[in-house]
Amino acid sequence: MRSLWWTTWGSTREERERTLPGDSLVHPRPHLRADRAVTVAAPPQDVWPWLMQLGQDRAGFYSWEFLENLIGSEISGVRVLRPEWSTRCVGDTVRLAPELPLTVHQVTQDESLVLVGGDPGAVPDVFTWVFALTPVADGTRLHVRERYRFARVHHRVLVPFLAVASCVMTVRMLRTIRRLAAS
Hints:
By secondary structure, the chain is α+β, with helices and mostly antiparallel strands. It contains five helices and six strands. The protein is 26% helix and 28% strand.
């Protein structure tokens, strides 16, 4: 699979080659894989609370709300930490939109959050969204990996569009979390 800048924005070769939690949940050769990352000038414990607030029914996705709302996400982004949104447990639902749930597959405090979505016949039929935090000398590397697998061949025509849309939204999310966690 050829890596294009919109699927690798900000990530290093080492990050892209690293195995992350949740990788085994999608076929070893996903139809789309994206690794994007940013360095946050804060320790992982200061980045983590922002990840716990992700979700349509919580703080949103720290991205382009007007675009999210164009597809019916009903996002009203919150840019402050709310104590009642400070945790996630395995099995919890994280909504992308009211009718588009993801399930928390794994939570390792201050290290990783693994979300899984999709079902047979859906577009995609399986999807993972992994947020990994790695301490570095100047703060934290926040690495987001997406892996998609499509059961139906005709759904694969969406891959280029999905990759670009995902890049636009994820880059904005990473930059916003970096700003919020470092302030």
